[in-house]
Design a protein that fits this description.
Radius of gyration: 20 Å
Structural class: mainly alpha
Helix content: over 70%
Oligomer: single chain
Length: about 425
Amino acid sequence: MDEQCKNSNKVSNWCVISMASIPLVMTLGNSMLIPVLPIFEKKVGISSFQTSMIITSYSIASIFLIPVAGYLSDRFGRKIVILPSLILALIGGLISGFASWKINDPFTWIIAGRVLQGIGAAGAAPIILPLVGDLYKDDDEKTSSCLGIIETSNTFGKVLSPILGAAFAAFLWYLPFFSISFFSLISIVLVLFFIRIPKRKEDPPALVAFLKNTRKIFINEGKWIFTVFTMGIFIMYVLFAVLFFLSDVLEKTHNLYGVKKGFVLAVPLLALCLSSFITGRKIKGDLKLMKRIMIVSLLSIASSVSFVGFVSDRLIFLLAVTSFLGLAIGALLPTLDAIITENIEKEERGTISSFYSSSRFIGVAAGPPLMSIFMKTYLNESFIGAGIISIAVVALVYFFIKTEEKPRLKEAVI
């Protein structure tokens, strides 16, 4: 604990680990429940759509509160927002777990706990993106590398999630809820002792000036910003829709249950994790490379997601297709993080990046419930439609992500 995060580009390893723990915990808090949703459906006596709401309620709470948390972090400081948010996530896990353990009809209380966790997630994981930008200042190469580690931690959480979730549920079906609180406690301790926020040289702008600055940013730079937001919504929708579908089909079609199912479900997520780690180390603030990665990844998504439904009854082909999809999504995630974080000035960084994080949660929230509807009658059509949308998003990237010069946002003149 001797080497702390200082007001320079030298950031301690423990500081990076502490920051990486937050998206890891928040990812476990959501993705760990996906492989055990069928168990919840049986134990609680609820429908497939109600089961999907265990994931969606968490995300909906985050969608609306992330922008608020972003502004508060710009105004009052990153750590002041992160720590109470992690405490809320801890309490939410206890509520959901205790309700599942002691209440006969726990669904309402489970959702209440999940909403509280979503509120905590809103003020924790999204604030890490602007925090990385604060710590590394204008060093785009180090920022990209650290964001790659952060996003890899996020995706590594997705790899661990199905295995841990299935293992915990095999012991006690409601244990995953309590485990979320335990992991949140670890992250709280790390953040408390190892993250040191650089001191502000100037006071943050007043609310009216801040809103005018933010509005001017969206007016002047809205095309590329909203393109990035659109990609965030789309890729997280595809990811969580496919994961929800896989969780269901691995049991009902391939008779895989428990930890064995968790390991199989982790295969495409491992591909996503490796791709995210490699991409984060390679982009180094190179906007032209980022644009190429976006286009190639979106075309790869289009070519793979369209076939998921057609190969669902052949496990090897299903894993191959979804792993290729995971590679494409994994390459996109750190790229989008970098382009948002590196090209926004510190005064608005928390708010703009929080809108981006909020857009990702829209995709997370929409994926499971829509897939629960589509897979009954329109499975193949829904995946083909996602492929067509991916091609349409390629057009947005081609026209609106400019590479002639970096679109770094300067402070608006009022």
